[in-house]
């Protein structure tokens, strides 16, 4: 494989009351509070067309993850057998890219309020993509 590098630039950060990985929900639909995606001003034009009610996929860089983990007990449950991270939603993985389906609640300039985001406060946002549910 070519290891020439694949530079990623965060476009924003998560602003959330969630600060402790141990107490944060494992998935957004498990009690995650509303949070804000706060984008760098340079990316303001990229938010054009985003509106309340839209379902979007948020890609994040799970910056507090352990990148050396290859197998885990799913959901941290030691009674379950170890499983390769590529078959789980564990944040600990070689490239800790988070994938979060959220609903946009409000767009206010470069701030986007979303529901169902389990990412921790300060998590870098890499990208947003609309959910395609039959629309193209």
Question: How does this structure look, described?
Answer:
The protein is mainly beta. The chain has strands at 12-15, 35-39, 55-61, 71-72, 83-84, 97-108, 111-115, 124-130. The model has no long low-confidence stretch (mean pLDDT 91).
How large is the radius of gyration?
Answer: 16 Å
Tally of separate helices: 0
Residue share in helices? under 10%
What class do helices, strands and sheet pairing give?
Answer: mainly beta
Strand order of the largest sheet: 1-2-7-6-3-8
Shape: globular
What's the total count of β strands? Answer: 8
Main sheet properties = 6 strands, antiparallel, barrel
Mean pLDDT metric: 91
How do the strands and helices of this protein lay out in sequence?
Layout: E1 12-15, E2 35-39, E3 55-61, E4 71-72, E5 83-84, E6 97-108, E7 111-115, E8 124-130
TL;DR of this structure?
The protein is mostly beta strands. Helices cover 0% and strands 32% of the residues.
List keywords for this structure.
single chain, 136 residues, mainly beta, 6-stranded antiparallel beta barrel, 8 strands, 32% strand
């Amino acid at each position: 494989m070519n290891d020439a590098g694949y530079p990623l630039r965060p476009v924003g950060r998560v602003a959330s009351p969630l600060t402790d990985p141990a107490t944060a929900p494992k998935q957004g639909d498990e009690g995650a509070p509303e949070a804000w995606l706060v984008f760098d001003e340079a990316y303001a034009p990229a938010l054009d067309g985003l509106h309340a009610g839209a379902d979007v996929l948020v890609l994040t860089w799970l910056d507090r993850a352990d990148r050396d983990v290859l197998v885990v007990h799913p959901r941290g449950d030691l009674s379950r057998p170890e499983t390769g991270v590529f078959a789980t939603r564990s944040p600990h993985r070689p490239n800790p890219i988070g994938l979060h389906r959220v609903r946009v609640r409000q767009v206010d300039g470069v701030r986007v309020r979303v529901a169902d985001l389990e990412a921790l406060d300060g998590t870098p946002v890499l990208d947003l993509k609309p959910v395609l549910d039959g629309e193209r």
